[in-house]
Amino acid sequence: MQHIKMKAIDVYHPKNQLNKAQYIEEFQEKGRDISNFLNIMGRENYYRINNADENSVTMAIEASKKVLKKAELTGDEIDMVIFSSQVPEYTFPSNAIFVHQAIQGKKDCIVYDNNANCAGMTIAVEQASRYMMSSPHVVRALIVGSDYLSLVANPEQEITTANFGDAACAVILEKTDEETGFIDAIYETDSSFKDNILYPANGFSQYMNKGEFLGYVDWKPFDGTVSLPYTFEKIQRLLERNHYSMKDVAMCCFSQFALVNIQRIQEHFAIADEKIVYVGDEYGYTGTNSPFITMYEGIESGKIKRGDLVLFWTIGGGHEFICMLFRY
To answer: Where is the signal peptide (predicted)?
Structure first.
């Protein structure tokens, strides 16, 4: 049986880095103290685009070129390109087309975009892995997640403007005979939350037909911890059906949206501190790619090594979350 391993992973982020002090001051001028909020979310610094030349596509291209170089591959050795974003630069053609052209990809290549909000890149890796296991024609896939979240951050809402960061992460998946790589994934979807986070707030047609500004993300206050009981149950089920326990997990790469959520999962499963990687204090919240930037930093720091069992968890607006097991 062939398996799907992660051959390489790399990250691109803008050079511009901001500190939370800027946002504390900005909101103090509005008569609001967001210090406690930022502590709960785990924010310290953020990478943010501050020029007209960068966007979700340019970041994706840079990350893709970096990961190809690391893997010692060229674009014509890639059989599938998936671009994941919730802030795409284009709706047509697909943004993946621009990545394909930039890496000089071959013609017999599957190329498409994915948008499952913050769960998107993890879902793309899971879907690509399963497809590769069933198709004899796809040996390598490039999955790149890129979010320019600060572009749509609402300056009046700390949950967006004082929370979001911009970055891209790219991974190369490759078929192997080694018993490693993708293992399994499990989902939870509760579409009753579909109106909590909207962009554009009233849909494209309502703005475009009236020639109005698309505005910013409309983030309605809601209890984000509502998904945690389901998260606990699904993680446990995923581990059990693959004959593992949390003791077998070497590292957890969770959504970096809120530090408090990571802490609650950690407390529920009694996960040791050394099995948790947190990067939200450096990058801000980077959306679709945040679990994989976490993995990248874990690998770079030596916390994640080849052969380690890694548990992923992340959640997208609406909501949909995915838990995934992957042996690096």
So the answer is: none
